[in-house]
Design brief:
The chain is built from 5 helices and no strands. It has 71 residues and is mainly α.
Length: 71
């Protein structure tokens, strides 16, 4: 979802919300429905959230980020 949020310049805000949800509230941020709700709460457009919920569109970029993080 962070990759999608970047399109609307909300990546940093979402990152903060995700960290709070996980570490403070104990939310399961691996659940797409919870992620969608968090996205809505910060103002992500319905179009972006719908794309996130129904696609693997950004999977190559995500896999690249994961690979780079372990280097």
């Amino acid at each position: 979802l962070l990759h999608f949020a970047k399109e609307e310049n909300l990546q940093n805000k979402l990152k903060e919300v995700l960290l709070e949800a996980h570490f403070v509230k104990g939310s399961n941020i691996g659940d797409k429905n919870i992620l969608a709700e968090l996205g809505k709460n910060i103002g992500l457009s319905d179009v972006i959230i719908e794309r996130f919920m129904n696609s693997q569109e950004q999977s190559e970029e995500v896999q690249k980020d994961i690979y780079e993080a372990f280097q």
